[in-house]
Amino acid sequence: MEADTRPSTTCITHSKEHDRKPLAMTHSRSASLTLGKTSDSDLSSSLRNHQTSVPNFTGSQPGIDDIVHHKKTQQTATEIAKLESEVNFLRRAHARQDRWTKLEPKETVKQIIKGEIYSLELYKSKEDKVAFLDAAIESHDGNAITAAVLFLRNTVKKSIFNQELMERAVAVSHYLQYLKLHYDFSELLDMLGMLGRNEEAAILKYKQSVAATNPEVKLRNLQTCYRTHFETDSSISHDAGHVKQQIELLERQLPIEKSDKQMELEGRTRIFKEHPRKASVLDTSVITTLYYCCFYHYDLSENSLACPSVICKKHGLTDKQFMWVALSARSRIRDWKGIEALFTTKNWYGGTKMKAVIGFEKVAEVLHKTGAPTDAISKYLRLVDDSDKKLELGKKYKCHEVVIDTLVANREKGELQAYQQKLVPHTVEFYYAADALRNSSIKWKS
User: Which of 20, 21, 163, 397 is deepest in the core (most CB within 10 A)?
Assistant: First the structure.
């Protein structure tokens, strides 16, 4: 009996239930995930539907029964990770899609104010950039204004930037503040000069100049600053005078410091051996420089840079300033002869007299503060004209003989007796008071 070689006519039939099920193997364009303004929830929903509707045939060829009966298999970790990666990519793409959408300037300003991600790349024309700057100014938000100004500066010619900026005072103010905070002093000086704010530019340059720690560098900076900003502008001539004096003082201090440092190292000068320098004279005030020179170079001639009298003349110091400083300096080194010469003047008849423009009561005060002996203080305290003031200061500085002589001159016997009781017995001042009380030639007040 021959075998039947005809093809089988047996057909696979489907139930109505199977006919209604969609074939899951097809993946049409409409069923795929596309880039658009789909929300994250829609994307997640599509992913879940995609995961549940696509059967897993990985690892083996699908059978006819798997296809017909929709046999569901479990997703592998690799497939899940791949699908999650796709979703994340679409989310990032969705977040970046506004970058390529040109927004109105006001909308971009709102994004800046809210702290959102924003893009300025699509503002290509000058008009767009200026419109964005105006929108930022209208918002009154400092961050937005600064961002708009910097965007304009970085994307247009400098001449155009300066022109547009000069027409907007608010933008200028924010830009200047930005330059100060970022220490862009070169650009800041240019802007101030362009605005005609010469005094601000001069002060800024001066601050930069004096900030140098090296005295020689500072001197060069000040000289340049003076020539560039102060010397050429008559409106700040008053300040120019101060800067010039500072330059001249530094020009004087540098050679003095160099010479004194060398003499101190050699150790052959008595004043530097007995009184070693505690600090450098460089970069000190004119009063401190005068004190230094009165201390170490008091007797120098006027052709020397360190001569105290020349310093006073050159820097416009008064006689009172000189006398006060010189007295303090010379009393520190116990130069009593020098102090006496300081107050000795000649009269019209060739004689001499003692004169102190600061007043001898101030002389006594300075001597007391510097630790001068009582005899030195008494010498100048006797020259105080006001007897009450003399009596007060004599008691304060314990110049007993001055007090006794003043009470005798005032014929105050009772006060002298009371004062003697306060003195230490058997001392010189005690016996000096006793001798005055026994003097019969004195006519005491009744």
Answer: 397
